[in-house]
Amino acid sequence: MGSADYYEILNVDRGATDDDLRRAYRRLAMRWHPDKNPAGKAQAEARFKDITEAYNVLSDADKRAVYDQYGEEGLRGAAPQAGGGADDIFAEFFGSTPFTYCNTAGGGGNARGGRQPPPPPAWDSGFSRGYGSGDHGGGAKSTMAPPPLPVESKLACTLEELYVGVTKKMRISRNVVDASGRMKTESEILSIEVKPGWKKGTKITFPGKGNQQWNQLPADLVFVIDEKPHPVYRRDGNDLVAEARVTLAEALGGTVVVLTALDGRELAVDVGSVGEDENDEEEEEGLPVVRPGYELVVPMEGMPMPREPGRRGSLRIRFDVVFPERLTRRQRALIKRVLEIDGGGGGGGGC
After folding, report:
1. Running DSSP on this structure, what letter comes out for residue 149?
2. DSSP letter at 113?
3. DSSP 327
4. In 3D, which of 323, 320, 296 has the Cα closest to residue 245?
5. How many angstroms separate the CA atoms of 314 and 212, rounded?
6. How far apart are the C-alpha atoms of 261 and 240, rounded to whole Å?
7. CA atoms in the 13 A half-sphere facing the CB of 343
8. pLDDT tens string for the chain (351 positions)?
9. Strand 295-298, strand 266-271: pairing
10. What is the per-residue DSSP string for 170-197?
C-alpha cells in the first residue's frame, strides 16, 4: 500500500477512539463495497482493501502503537500477527459479506491476535442477502433474520392490455435502513412489462423492493396480474368467448356477425349466409343451423400463448336466438312448408 496514512484513509484524527474508528469504517465500507460500485469495481476493490487494512491496524492497540511510532515500515518489521481479512471485518459489522474476491489481507479464522473484535451493531443494513448459517471466509455467523414474506399487490389490466402487451409504471414508497442505521422512506418508479397472453394470477417479483426492518432483509414486492371485466369478451384459458344475439330469420337464413377484436381490428364472421349462386355445392349438403346455445369456433382469434409464440387460442361465439312474438297464418304456413320440404317429411299440404 506504499506509505499510506491510515488515519487519512479512515478520515479520522490521530486521537480517534475505538467508537470513532468503528463509525468511520462502517460508513466507508458501505460506500466503497465493490458490490455497490459495479461501474468502477476495480477502484472500489482497491479502496475497500485500503479501508480494511487501515481499520485492521488502528483498531488493534498493539499494532496502532507500532504504527504511531514507526509508521507502516515498523509494522512490516514486526512479528506477524493474525489479522482479519476484508471479509471477516465486514462480517463483524454487517453480519455477513456477499463477496469472495478479497480474503487475502490477513489470515482467516476468528483469531484476531491480541485484540477483541468490536461487537456488531444491533442493526443490519440489509446490504448482504446471505443470511442464515455458515461462516463466510472464517468470519462470524450472520445474525440477520430471514427476509419477511413477500408483499403482494394487484396489478389490474384490461383484456386489451393482456392481448397486445403493455408496460406499466408503478410508483412505490417503502421504508429502508440506510448505511448509518437510520430508517427512512424512499420512493421509486418500477417498470412492469406485461407480456401478451399473460393470465390472471401471473406474478412479477421485484426482489428486495418491499419494506425493511432493522436487522432484517427487505421484503420482496410481488405484483399479481388481475383482469378487468370486458363488455364483449370473456376469457376461458387461451380462448375468448363472445355472445351474439340474432333473430330467427338470421339464424335460419344466415348472417354476418361483426365484432371489434381486442387489437382494434374489425372481425366479420360469416354465419351460414347464403350467396347469390343457387347451384352452390353446399346447397345440397346443407349448412349448419344457428340454434339457441349454438357455438361457432373461429380458430386463431383468441389470446396469444406466451409459451408458443405465434399461436393463439380460438374465438368462441355463442348464439342467443330471438324468436318473434307473433306470426301470421301465412308466415307459419310458409315456414312449415319450407322446413317439411328440406326435412324430407313429405306430407305436402299447405294453405
Report:
1. P
2. T
3. -
4. 320
5. 46
6. 10
7. 11
8. 446 789 999 999 988 998 889 888 888 888 888 888 888 888 988 898 898 988 988 998 888 888 888 887 777 655 444 445 555 555 555 544 444 333 333 333 343 344 444 443 333 444 444 433 444 444 444 456 676 889 999 999 999 999 999 999 999 998 888 877 788 899 999 999 999 999 999 999 999 898 888 778 888 999 999 999 999 999 999 999 999 999 999 998 889 999 999 999 999 999 876 555 545 555 556 677 899 889 999 999 999 999 998 999 999 999 999 999 999 999 999 988 988 875 544 444 443
9. unpaired
10. EEEEEEEE-TTS-EEEEEEEEEEEEPTT
Contact (CB, 8 A) for 322 and 245: yes
Q: What is the DSSP string of 194-209?
A: EPTT--TT-EEEETT-
What is the C-alpha to C-alpha distance for residues 190 and 169, in angstroms, rounded to an integer? 6
Dist CA 162 CA 303 (whole Å):
8
Residue with cell 478520515: 11
pTM reported for the whole predicted model = 0.54
DSSP codes of every residue in 243-258: EEEEEHHHHHH-EEEE
Count Cβ atoms below 10 Å from residue 99 Cβ, excluding itself. 18
Question: To the nearest 5 percent, what fractions of the chain are helix, strand and coil?
Answer: 30, 25, 50
Judge contact between 290 and 215, C-beta under 8 A. no
123 three-class SS: coil
